[in-house]
Write a structure and sequence with these properties.
Strand order of the largest sheet: 1-2-3
Order of helices and strands: EEEHHHHHHHHHEEEHEEHHHHH
Shape: globular
Number of helices: 15
Helix content: 40-55%
CATH superfamily of the largest domain: Intergrase catalytic core
Number of strands: 8
Largest sheet: 3 strands, antiparallel
CATH topology of the largest domain: hpI Integrase, Chain A
CATH architecture of the largest domain: Orthogonal Bundle
């Protein structure tokens, strides 16, 4: 008697179905069942190799020893997914690669042999990647495509180098500067910030103040935990997830008060792991979490779901500030903080990497310098209405 063991799909959108009797993954196409083996990853790769022929009613061609565009994208995404698991790549970066892969496959064709591509193909690809997109977006797609091709060469998946030509390049710095100037940059002025603060709910108001005061982005406030804050002493210490660089900031009294109110009104967490989160959605879930999303040809991977982005965009649009995003607050912190004339302290607050030799020898930054930067931004925002600067404890959090 055969024991039929049910096998769960690796992720909800996995295109194959487990057959308990044969103990293989299968796909029913045109009324016929096709089996692809017991290993989920290998079965998916085998299905993708012959999918087009099977759905067209053709006998699958014998697999040739060539790398297609579709296979390149899938292999790259599978390899980089392991980097997300190890913490070497962010989920957002993985999702950006997945989106670029979709565009590359659509433009060049899934079954096109990579080694057959030439300068004319990449010139056409660049044109399609730029259609209806900003120069900065085009630059990202070009860079990620180059990274994928370099990865294929480094892993000896190509018999000969791919000639991309001189035209397949990022937009020039002058073009990027002109685009930035035309778009008006990502700065929020005092009146706009005050309007946002006055109209925001308790949670969003605390988040906005953390963005201005500490240079936190939308993912930062979503990941923020109580253990990273010392509200009594007025300090925040949060290592930047993207780079692993330590950050520390002196908190304004307005920020401390707003965060305390937000914590007091925080919904009950749905999961015990989120007990220490500063902010939770109305359903008790984190404001920043990773979810599985299909990427290319059935390959799934992590994507960051961040309700902070949507909530801020909704608030901004209601106030006539459509196009302004939560990350603009980080630009304000950097721009106004620079007016303190202590860029080293600003970099520490922002979590920016410093490639100079000075950073190799610099063991710490005096807390007084961090307080000066915080107070400079605070005076810019509140002016004469700013309360007397708080007394911060000069001990590390």
């Amino acid at each position: 008697m055969i024991c039929k063991v049910k096998q769960a799909k690796p992720y909800p959108d996995y295109p194959l179905t487990w057959h308990a009797g044969n103990r293989q993954w299968l796909k029913k196409i045109k009324g016929k069942q096709h089996y692809f083996g017991a290993d989920a990853d290998k079965a998916l790769a085998s299905y993708l190799d012959c999918r087009d022929d099977l759905h067209a009613g053709r006998e699958p061609k014998a697999k040739q020893d060539v790398l297609t565009v579709g296979e390149l994208c899938n292999r790259f995404l599978l390899a980089r997914r392991a980097d997300v698991t190890s913490g070497e790549l962010s989920a957002k970066s993985w999702h950006d690669y997945a989106y670029t892969s979709k565009l590359v496959i659509a433009a060049l064709g899934r079954t096109r042999t990579v080694e057959d591509l030439g300068p004319a193909d990449f010139a056409s690809l660049r044109a399609k990647l730029g259609e209806g997109r900003a120069a900065t977006t085009l630059a990202g797609h070009v860079t990620r495509t180059r990274v994928m091709l370099r990865w294929a060469a480094d892993n000896e998946l190509l018999k000969q180098p791919v000639r991309m030509g001189a035209n397949f390049r990022e937009p020039s710095k002058s073009v990027l500067r002109k685009h930035r100037a035309a778009s008006g940059g990502k700065m929020l002025e005092i009146e706009q910030v005050l309007t946002l603060l006055e109209s925001a709910d308790v949670t969003m108001r605390a988040m906005i103040l953390l963005g201005l005061n500490c240079g936190y982005g939308n993912a930062d406030v979503g990941r923020l935990r109580n253990s990273m804050l010392d509200l009594e002493a007025g300090w925040a210490a949060f290592t930047r997830p993207k780079t692993g660089i330590a950050r520390k900031a002196a908190l304004w009294p307005e920020t401390v008060a707003a965060v305390k109110v937000a914590i007091a009104q925080r919904p009950k967490p749905m999961h015990r792991a989120d007990d220490d989160r500063v902010f939770l959605t109305r359903t008790g879930l984190p404001y920043c979490k990773e979810v599985e999303m299909p990427a290319v040809d059935g390959t799934a991977g992590p994507c960051v779901d961040n309700p902070v982005t949507r909530a801020f965009a909704k608030l901004a649009a209601r106030l006539g500030l459509a196009g302004k995003g939560f990350y603009h607050l980080r630009h304000v912190c950097e721009t106004i903080g620079g007016g303190s004339r202590d860029q080293v302290a600003v970099n520490h607050i922002m979590g920016h990497a410093d490639a100079s030799m000075a950073s190799v020898y610099r063991e710490r930054i005096d807390d007084g310098r961090l307080i000066d930067v915080a107070e400079h931004i605070r005076r810019w925002l509140y002016g004469d209405k700013a309360a007397v600067p708080p007394t911060h404890e000069l001990a590390a959090v």
